[in-house]
Design a protein that fits this description.
Length: about 160
């Protein structure tokens, strides 16, 4: 009997801010097996958490910013093959947009070099550094106004260990 194939479930935060005339997005630079890469605050769904809890946690761990998700921008799937190891992974990404309400003085997750604010044009200009091919698609969908209400997602209490 063969194993059931399962994609790697991830979340990503699209965090805009208006800085004068510039619309900027919160991004991270991180070290990976394939070198320094640029990404949205993003990461894997952990056991016993909802998708919303995961994106809040990942944003805090990677940027030290407290994130409040406001909408689901979209769900995305891509396949990644590491140029160094040849390892193949399919990612299923849930991208949320929202706002940050506070920045904390805390260390960033292992491997995160820094959090930074960039315009769409700046992000577009450095595609060779993108960790995921989904970064631009998520931003383009956000800029096009694509939003789904958070109440379209439901997490049964059994997932977060809050079932009776």
């Amino acid at each position: 009997m063969s194993e059931t194939w399962k994609p790697s479930v991830t979340v990503a935060a699209i965090v805009p801010r208006q800085n004068g005339e510039r619309l900027e997005f919160l991004m991270i630079e991180e070290t990976t097996a394939d070198g320094v890469r640029l990404n949205q605050a993003a990461g894997h769904l952990d056991p016993n958490e909802s998708l919303e809890q995961a994106v809040v946690r990942e944003t805090m761990e990677e940027t030290a910013h407290e994130f409040v998700p406001e909408a689901l921008v979209g769900t995305y799937m891509s396949k990644f093959i590491s140029p160094n190891s040849g390892k193949e992974v399919t990612y299923l990404r849930f991208a949320f947009c929202g706002k940050v309400i506070a920045q904390h003085d805390r260390p960033l997750d292992h491997g995160i070099l820094r959090a930074l604010w960039m315009t769409y044009e700046e992000i577009l200009a450095c595609q060779e550094m993108h960790r995921s091919p989904l970064i631009l698609q998520c931003l383009q969908d956000y800029l096009a106004g694509q939003r789904a209400p958070l109440d379209l997602m439901y997490t049964h209490p059994s997932v977060t260990n809050s079932a009776n």
